[in-house]
Amino acid sequence: MKVFLVKKIKHLIQNFQNIMLPLCSGSGFASSLYFTIFSRDFYYEHKAVLQAQIAYSKSSGIHGDSSALLRRNIHRLEKGLIMRPRRNIFALEYLLETVEVYKSAGSRKGFSISELMWAKSILDEYFLVVDCNHPDIFYASQVYFKIKLPDVIGQTKKLPYIQVDKAKHNVSYNQFMDLCLARRSTRWFDQKNVEDEKIQQAASIALQAPSACNRQPYEFYMVQSQPLLSQLVTLPGGTAGFATNIPCLIAVVGDLSYYPHARDRHVIYIDGSLASMQFMLALETLGLASCPINWPELHTLDAKVAKLLGLPQYKRVVMFIAVGYPDKSGYIAYSEKKASADIVRKL
Ligand SMILES: Cc1cc2nc3c(=O)[nH]c(=O)nc-3n(C[C@H](O)[C@H](O)[C@H](O)COP(=O)(O)O)c2cc1C
Questions:
Q1: Ramachandran category for residue 277: left, alpha or beta (phi over 0 → left; psi -120 to 50 → alpha)
Q2: Per-residue pLDDT at 235
């Protein structure tokens, strides 16, 4: 009887959706209405985006020892400096904002000296090469040159450099392919702790990944102590059957409060994933294996993980990564790959 009822309800829901989906998918407003009335799929995300905007404006774009706003604007200035031809007036829309955030970041105790030095090097160079007779530039330079940050004195300058001065590498295509072939999603691990230092080393390589406007809006939460590990590994369904075998879990968390606008709400997933890929390849070079674990966008799960990791709502889980020393007798799925010709579309 109960099974019959459940089947009947499912059937009714399916019929209802068959009617509603074509109707609602025709316009943005109707789609939003559908998700407001009939689904809670976007509840958590919508709230997160709004809370992120509040957090951004409260923090004035500064996050602990780093500033998304400073990083973004200094990045924009760098692009102006390397432009061909370089203009002698640029960046007027955000120049004063940059100088002001540099000043307030510099006055924060514990703010990253290396980030401040990068900002100072670029701002110094900017005021050196632009037309300081322009009233906006003149005003900003007056504000800028009054800022005294003793901690950055004596630090090495961080300026754009020419292509031939770029870091060299000796990695051939074949060597890189070998590394990529060796990284395989691994689900069976030795029951052995992973050294913090190795995670730090892999994270240093993760940080070399490209990031929109160089904001780097992610953190890697490393968990291998109990009971937190057991509580976390069983949350995403994708660990079923091997959850208890995972010795170390990384939660890749993106911080939506790095952005003042909803339009950038997906950048945490892009940046977080690019960094994660490099992280996993780096782990392989350190003798460690990994498996990315899908994080389903379910408001019930989001609430649970936020509680366990102590996250504000605007910090979102991008994915989990299981990490450990591989159990040599454990099997690895074959996972046939597509051919390059299947994905490269020459237009
Ligand atoms: C975003 C993402 C989520 C994944 N989620 C899971 C998961 O929940 N459980 C799992 O066992 N594997 C998961 N994987 C691993 C994939 O199954 C695996 O990458 C794919 O089958 C290809 O195999 P390979 O990584 O060995 O090349 C995930 C991979 C990615 C990129």
A1: alpha
A2: 96
